Amino acid sequence: MRKNIYLIKIFILLHAPFGQRMQFVKEIRRSIDDKLDSGMTIDEVFEELGEASALTEEYNDIGMRQQTKEYVWMMLWILVGICLGVLLVIDGYTLYTGYHEINQYIAPTGYEWIDFRPKAGGTWDKVIVESVGFCICMGNVIYHYKRRRNAKKKDNEL
Predict the structure, then answer these.
(1) Mean pLDDT (the chain, rounded)
(2) Would you list the DSSP string of 83-114?
(3) pTM for the whole thing?
(4) Fewest Cβ atoms nearer than 10 Å: which of 20, 144, 148, 158?
């Protein structure tokens, strides 16, 4: 009964995905069973392994730091990409519809006319820069997502 409580504490204190937690608890259970089979008492086994919090703290510090870092970078690039995407849509709409400069002219003879001129001067430059920035952001999101997924796979294999 005491062994199960110890394993439950480890499972609860471990900050990892469910599959990694189960794998880690299975390895600890095997280790405890091997030590009990070799003739050690349960108290000696717990004394050798240490507290559950100390055992999981080392794993949490080492294993999850890389995954958390990749997640933060991925979210940052997603937010920057969303901002650039919104600007890109706005400037693309501006190019599609165009700003119109309305000039009203009155001749000395009393003749009036209105002149509509499209005015979208620097918008092409902005669209090109925002498109390149958006592509860079999406590339970085994909890169960090793949690194994070590979780190998870590597942890699952261990």
Answers:
(1) 77
(2) HHHHHHHHHHHHHHH--EEEEEEE-TTS-EEE
(3) 0.45
(4) 158
